[in-house]
Amino acid sequence: MELIDVTIPRRNTVEGVEVWDDIASGHFVVKSESVGIQGHLQQLPFPDVFYHLREQLEMLCEVADNSSRHQDKMCKRFTRLDEIYEKQEDKRRVTRLMSAQIGVPDIMKLDPSGKITIEERIYKRIKEQGKKVAFRLDDSSSVFSANPASKAYRLGLRMMNAVRAAADVQQKKFDIYGNLTPKTVEELKKGREWLFKLLPQVSGLIEVAWSDDLILLGILRENGYLQLNKIGMSGIPCAAVCRVLDSKLESVSKAIRDKIKGVQGQSYQTARANGYSRGIALVLFEDGKAIAMLTLTTASREDVAFLASGPAL
């Protein structure tokens, strides 16, 4: 979820919907602040501390599931997490945000233990880098400055252990050759069932195509260049793309939202050869975790060809 870096979440993604919803709901606020640039004061937009908290949590989660390219910065993330946590009067807001980060109702109710704990990995890395554990020492001192006894540190470990456990479960969805197990394939097919029931009830759809893990990983398997278990799964059981008439886009979106509570969405435009197509990305969240995604698009068959047909309309 990058707002400060050069990469901004694409609007037709789960991440993009999350970011816009966070801003709209006030989970974090972007405010204008005066900043001195080459001797002149400029008004620049800056997100508040809860945006920065989300950034630290996300990067710690990436360390936990081994997707991070900057595991060497883990200690700095814990330091910043500790600093943000200690400055907040409403500690429950922090724990609620941590719960949402990993898609659980309450992080405080998670079992803090783990088979191979993240804490063991942390101390192993500290030892490898020749660092010592200390409390609140400056980052430049090359010392791990998060307090191992602090509440924020313990919560961070709890969160990372949950992410690690989920990553371990995901790996079991692949066989020794890196392909999806038959059981996983059946689970993914079952995740489509609610769409089979829902979409035929929505008028204005032209055609539907699947865009879930079963399709995406199947395409990757066919090219033979990538190991599926290294790519992993999105964790979203059901995803599809729906083609609609431009005049029906908003009414179709409303019809789906009326039938399914908890759906969040974001409109977007995409440049095409002969102009623009419009779209709306709809994401269904449950306990803070995305469980389904529908992408509505007005793109023509010439602009976007559907390869994997979805439910009959």
Which secondary-structure class do the elements indicate?
Answer: alpha+beta
Total strand segments? 7
Rg for CA atoms: 22 Å
Main sheet: strand order: 3-4-7-6-5
Count of alpha and pi helical runs: 11
* Overall helicity: 40-55%
Distance between the termini: 35 Å
> Helix and strand succession?
HEEHHHHHHHEHHEHEEE
Mean pLDDT: 80
* Envelope shape: globular
Low-confidence stretches: 132-145
Biggest beta sheet summary: 5 strands, mixed
Number of domains: 2
Q: How big a fraction of the residues is strand?
A: 15-25%
Keywords:
313 residues, 11 helices, 7 strands, alpha+beta, five-stranded mixed beta sheet, single chain, Beta Polymerase, domain 2
Descriptive notes:
The protein has 313 residues and is of the alpha+beta class. It has 2 domains: 48-171, no CATH class; 182-297, Beta Polymerase, domain 2, CATH 3.30.460. It contains 11 helices and 7 strands. It has helices at 14-24, 49-64, 74-87, 91-101, 118-128, 151-171, 182-191, 193-198, 213-223, 228-231, 249-259, and strands at 30-37, 40-47, 205-210, 238-244, 263-272, 275-286, 289-297. The chain has a 5-stranded mixed sheet, with helices on both faces. Strands 1-2 form a two-stranded antiparallel sheet. A hairpin with a 2-residue loop joins strand 1 and strand 2. The longest helix has 21 residues, at 151-171. The chain is globular.
Short description:
This protein has 313 residues and is of the alpha+beta class.
